[in-house]
Design a protein that fits this description.
Shape: elongated
Radius of gyration: 26 Å
Length: 501
């Protein structure tokens, strides 16, 4: 507000922090340097629709105190059965700077339980410093969704997230978010960014059985290290991941799906969008389900195998029911598969276009590796294009790749590179009836295990391609195998390929 006229003032610069123009509402409950305090069974209503709002202050929105609860440098704080809503800034902010390091053994024991922090202006919860915080059965939803009638627009301040984990002059470590909801926030459901080459300031942050639903923004925006997601549902796109292999982002038993929210499509072109951001990001026992979106853009931050994404016992399901989305492809541009993995469809497409998945990065030497374990390519009308390399079985133990009915594995020549398919000892590539292996010009297939083309399967080798069995390798073409390209799929002829085939 203009300090002279008292009227709303909109600064000409994007970043504006002149204290003469800032008017703070303050925070409703402040716990500062407290110990052993419980707050329970109350509702705090910030009445944001009725606020008199001036111009922006800070970077975006209004970065001035207007929180429901503010906890600073306190221990053993318990917050139970609270409803904290419609505040101008945060539902709650925790800013502890008590820990001396990420491994400080003195936990602060901050507990949020059975509470809601919804419809606030900047965050449901900001964790700007904590060493030992738990949130159980809480909601951090609908941030930045409240319209101020006098303005005719929403009250939103960056980042507008459900939860922001952003250490300010300290660390955030040993955090547990269990059975919490991060739904329909104007910003991200969960955000924890990392800037430049700054040392890590987060560690041991675990989300368990949480729902993260991005409708107009990412479900999760993450770059900080030390995050583990267990049995979570991510509806809408996850983006980035940690660039430090030691603090790699991990997912166990999670479901990624573009499930619509109240008739509105989930956010993002890919369910997981990580383009040269992350190292060694891992997915174990996870499910990826696409109704309208692509599943993965997975390009690691470096082309070496140590940086590649890890996928173990995962299922990738395409439920398009018509032609796949246009404009790009699923991209597994540096990955190591282990355990049992399947790409499948549960719906029979009505269109004639092939689903396309790129394996390996054509711009680098990032290969896709299967060992030990299996990879079943069984999505309806799937085309899997090997751009740099596909290695089956080189890391020890037997590995198997199966190309199912209606699917095509293509070795694709690249400028200045000869993509290589390698089948290691005790490993197999099996092309099932109705499936196809196409070896284009300027590619090669080296066989130290077995390449099996079954009766009714297709095998095409360009005259300028190399297919070479090693001393103990075997190329086994069944008498009824078809040496040629497979027919182009049509809507009427598309086979029903999936879990039952």
């Amino acid at each position: 507000f203009d300090p002279t006229t008292k009227l709303p003032f909109e600064a000409a610069t994007a970043f504006f922090i002149d204290g003469n123009y800032g008017i703070s509402l303050g925070n409703t409950i402040v716990l500062q340097k407290c110990d052993n305090v419980e707050v329970a069974d109350i509702m705090l209503n910030g009445s944001s629709p009725h606020l008199v709002v001036g111009g922006h202050w800070g970077d975006t929105g209004i970065q001035l105190p207007a929180d429901g609860l503010f906890v600073q440098d306190s221990r053993r704080i318990t917050l139970r059965r609270l409803a904290v809503h419609h505040f101008g800034r945060d539902g709650i902010q925790v800013l502890n700077r008590l820990a001396k390091s990420l491994d400080d053994p003195n936990r602060e024991d901050i507990l949020l339980e059975n509470s809601t922090f919804d419809y606030n202006g900047r965050q449901g919860l900001s964790i700007t410093g904590a060493n030992g915080l738990r949130a159980v059965n809480c909601s951090f939803s609908h941030t930045g969704r409240v319209v101020i009638p006098a303005l005719g627009k929403v009250l939103f301040s960056n980042p507008g997230a459900g939860v922001d984990i952003e250490p300010e002059g300290g660390v955030v470590s040993h955090v547990r978010l269990a059975s919490c909801r991060f739904v329909d926030n104007a910003g991200q459901g969960l955000v924890s960014d990392h800037y430049g080459d700054a040392p890590p300031v987060t560690k041991d942050i675990v989300l368990t059985n949480c729902l993260l639903w991005g409708v107009t923004n990412w479900s999760v925006w993450l770059r900080q290290p030390g995050f583990l997601f267990e049995n979570c549902r991510l509806y809408g796109a996850f983006v980035n991941g940690c660039a430090q292999a030691a603090g790699a982002t991990r997912f166990v038993g999670c479901t990624f799906e573009d499930r619509p929210y109240r008739g509105q499509a989930a956010y993002g072109l890919f369910l997981v969008h990580s383009d040269k951001e992350a190292r060694r990001m891992s997915f174990a026992n996870c499910h990826f389900i696409g109704h309208h979106s692509y599943l993965l853009l997975a390009r690691p931050a470096a082309p070496d195998t140590a940086s590649a994404f890890r996928l173990r016992n995962c299922t990738f399901r395409y439920d398009y029911g018509s032609n796949p989305p246009l404009g790009t492809s699923d991209q597994l541009l540096g990955a190591v598969f282990s355990g049992s993995n399947t790409l499948e469809s549960s719906l029979l497409p009505t269109g004639s276009s092939r689903l396309r998945v790129l394996l390996g990065d054509s711009a680098s030497s990032s290969p896709v590796v299967v060992a030990p374990g299996s990879l079943r390519l069984a999505a309806a009308s799937g085309e899997y294009v090997v751009q740099s390399g596909l290695t089956i079985g080189s890391l020890g133990g037997g590995a198997r790749v199966e190309v199912a009915n209606g699917n095509v594995l293509v070795m694709k020549g690249q400028p200045n590179r000869v993509p290589e398919l390698y089948i290691g000892p005790t490993s197999q590539l099996v092309v099932k009836k109705g499936g196809a292996l196409i070896v284009e010009a300027s590619t090669k297939v080296l066989i130290d295990g077995q390449l099996v083309v079954e009766e009714g399967a297709y095998f095409y080798q360009d005259p300028q391609a190399e297919v070479r069995p090693g001393a103990r390798g075997q190329l086994r073409l069944a008498p009824g195998a078809i040496q040629g390209r497979p027919p182009v799929p049509t809507a009427a002829a598309t086979p029903a390929v999936g879990r039952g085939n």
